[in-house]
User: Which sequence fits this backbone?
């Protein structure tokens, strides 16, 4: 990633995740590479595969923003909810859900059941 070779970074991170599927840090890095490459659905898959780390809240939020730009509101709502699962006090995700007309209590209840 530091050498601006995202394809190589993806391949290396996938290999790590094949060996250690629960490696949250590798999944987090893979999601970041995908987000940087504007590969939104792949980023969501990487985030889903990893442990829900507090650090992932910002990545879920960023993914939600990308989905909004693509007029994929349902996917955006799910991404914002996942941000709140990772970090319940994530103010940007809370604001984004409100702007989409989603009651925050509903968002938290749905996120807790996932």
Assistant:
């Amino acid at each position: 990633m530091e050498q601006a070779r995202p394809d190589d970074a993806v391949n290396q991170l996938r290999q790590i995740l094949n060996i250690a599927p629960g490696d949250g840090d590798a999944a987090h890095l893979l999601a970041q590479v995908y987000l940087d490459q504007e590969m939104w659905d792949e980023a969501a898959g990487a985030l889903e595969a990893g442990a829900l780390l507090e650090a992932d809240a910002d990545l879920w939020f960023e993914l939600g923003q990308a989905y909004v730009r693509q007029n994929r509101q349902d996917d955006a709502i799910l991404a914002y909810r996942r941000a709140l699962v990772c970090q319940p006090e994530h103010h940007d995700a809370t604001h984004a859900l409100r702007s989409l007309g989603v009651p925050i209590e509903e968002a938290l209840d749905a996120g807790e059941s996932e």
In short: The first helix runs from residue 6 to 19. Residues 107-114 have pLDDT under 50 and may be disordered. Helices lie at 6-19, 24-36, 40-49, 56-69, 73-86, 91-99, 104-113. The radius of gyration is 14 Å.
